[in-house]
# Entry
Amino acid sequence: MLSRTADHLFWMARYTERAENTARMLDVRVQYSLMPQTALAAQQGWRTMLGVSELEQQFDAKYSALTQKEVIDFMVRDPDNPSSIASCLTAARENARAVRGTLTTEVWETENTTWIELQQHLRSRMFESHPGQFLEWVKHRSHLSRGVTLGTMFQDGAFNFIRLGTFLERADNTARILDVKFRFLDSDAIKAGPQGEFYYLAALLRSVSAFETYRKVYRDAITPSRVAALLILEEKMPRSLVACMAAVVANLQEISNEVSQETERLAGKLHAKVRLAVIDDILEEGLHDFLTSFLASIEEIGNGIGSDFLVPAEDHA
# Structure
């Protein structure tokens, strides 16, 4: 497969997944903002989300105040933010358009329709009047894109690059969502008491579609350690770190070439690290340190995929 075609497919999937995960992070923050909390705690929650997304400095340079309205505007529609939902869905559509001949008609029409509907929602400012409804729409369109890809694409190298982009981005974002919710758990939910912690953790689980799964797996009270274990170590949980890495390893094996051995080794090493981990050891080490190391490894694997299979970074459209 031509490296430029692989590049467009890989990034189409990454941008679609990134838009969904940005929506998930925003949704959990919007839900938690409805709970009783101090103004300082609310502002700290929004700033933490920006910080974990590595967008804090960019936001501060453009916006004079840090409020829910400004953060949502920045993360949803701001064209100067390459990670905003609008920027991601536009980039996904442009990458899809560049390789229309490789995609099925259904996949292309799904990406294109998403972009058209997005313009309508931005004009109506639905993200301000009904943020929860808008964020659910983003998640639904991402689900639809994945479903159409699975249901209509021939499972050759093109399919593997799409899946590789999806799971690499999902692993990155699950780690970031975990980090943003746990880093300030002490200062946010615990001060609100057990009830506050429950709603805090329940919102986190719902942000990754894991609330019902948690009940099925544990059938007990929601605790931070069990939430972390589910989203890191549970192989049957679709958005867990270990499940994402298993998919990354499997798809890398399908597209293996003569220069990709080191990238495959790095992915296999990270998968083994997560698969063999014990939650008590992770928490003793420090969840933030564990996730920071995981994210650094994901970046290294992403760079390896870029150099082994895709167009050079300076040529990326």
About this structure: The mean pLDDT is 90. DSSP finds 17 helices and no strands in the chain. The two ends are 18 Å apart (CA to CA). Residues 133 and 219 are 30 Å apart (CA to CA).
